[in-house]
Amino acid sequence: MKNVLCYGFKKSLVESTRNKNIKLIQVIDDWDDPEFLPSPENHEMRIKVKDSTNDFFVLSSLMRNQAEDIDLVISPYEYTLVNVSIMAKLLSVDYILPNVAISFRDKIIQKTKLAGAVKLPKYTEYDEAFSFDDLKKLVGTPFVIKPNSGTGTIFTYKITDKKTFLEVKPKLDAMYNRFNTIIVESFVSGTEYYVDGWFSDYKLQQFIVSKYVTPLLNIYNGELTQGISLKKSEHEDLYNEVETILNSVMPTLDLGNSVFHLEFFLNENGEIVFSECAARLGGTLVEEKFKYNFDIDMNLVQLEPEKYKGSFKEISTNTGFSYLPSPTVIIELPSADYLKEKNKDLIAFEYEWECGMGIPDSNASTSSRIGRFIVKGKSEEETFFNLEKVVSDFKKFIIESGGSFEKESSNSRS
């Protein structure tokens, strides 16, 4: 039996490792909402710590629970990637080396290493002494400012003028004291894309290019995070360009055996501008997308990517993912079965909220969500229609059951 150390609870990973001769040792902290987790399955072991990003807390807890005999480690989430790489080194387990993990967490280091290998936005490290005019000279306007090692668009601001900058600056200065560094980048106008796949022995394996319905920053305007996978047969030039970029980015960052989630823009001139890349599965229900298209379990690929190899295959059907809109009042939630009865092309659905939790503000971050789902479609247009249909049915059920999406409402059952 293999002992797999996992930082954080992930439902689909528990399901993937069931009956696989794997013991899943999960480090849980308050971020996982432990009081709402289901009872552990037979192959699960949960170790509660105050903060899973504190290496002392984790290692001492492993020792107290006699759980130091680890064969594999995994970080399904962004914030613990470097901690897991350090722990793997301490436990003499093969994983991404700490300096490689840092290259995927620190956006300034990542872009500095990739300079000359891919087209990048202008960028600089923020300093409290910078004025709007200083930043304008360095990166131009508009520009985006965000934590250098953040995730989920949290604390990300688009600055268009001096007035906007002065309104945001108190938040920036508070953020500056909270995070190690802040990055400022020139704003890229265009369409935002993402790529999911994996490398095995430094060779690119299966990957899928997808397009966000609207740029991620639009969540601050109330837009949902949504995306649609693209067929290579209909976007051959784009796929070929992306393959070239992947085969440049990963060797440069020394990622030989890992899943990845890379984001880029296609700007107004038709050029690919690199945004960022993570050495983990994306939060877009990647597992369900690959399972449906190729019968590949990406949770198992993430555990041992060097064991999974094969030639590129085209997707036969488009898939689309969406987060669910967050109500302000919840009386009752529609079941997955109810929504599937109304939507024959709904192929995966999950809630990440239940009664007793605070209702997440989906406009605050792309990691703040009440649930997610995946649909299929014969074309990109049909796939988008199916996404909107599920969202519409969800909202209609919430309202008809007495719930609300009105921002002024405050009496939520949370």
Please summarize what this structure is:
This protein is an alpha+beta fold. The chain contains twelve helices and 16 strands.
Walk me through what this model shows:
- With 414 residues, the chain is α+β, with helices and mostly antiparallel strands.
- The protein folds into four domains: 2-95, Rossmann fold (3-Layer(aba) Sandwich), CATH 3.40.50.20; 106-113 and 190-316, D-amino Acid Aminotransferase, Chain A, domain 1 (2-Layer Sandwich); 122-186, Dna Ligase, domain 1 (2-Layer Sandwich), CATH 3.30.1490; 317-414, 2-Layer Sandwich (Alpha-Beta Plaits), CATH 3.30.70.
- The protein is 31% helix and 24% strand.
- The protein is built from twelve helices and 16 strands.
- The protein has helices at 11-17, 55-64, 81-90, 98-105, 107-114, 132-139, 162-178, 236-252, 286-294, 298-303, 336-342, 380-400; strands at residues 2-7, 22-28, 44-48, 72-74, 123-125, 143-147, 157-159, 182-186, 190-200, 203-212, 226-229, 258-267, 272-278, 318-323, 346-351, 371-377.
- The protein has an eight-stranded antiparallel sheet, sandwiched between helices. The protein has a four-stranded parallel sheet with strand order 3-2-1-4. The protein has a four-stranded antiparallel sheet with strand order 5-8-6-7, covered by helices on one side.
- Strand 9 (190-200) and strand 10 form a beta hairpin.
- Helix 3 runs antiparallel to helix 4 and helix 4 packs across helix 5.
- The protein is globular.
- The protein starts with a strand and ends in a 14-residue tail after the last helix.
- Residues 409-414 have low confidence and may be disordered.
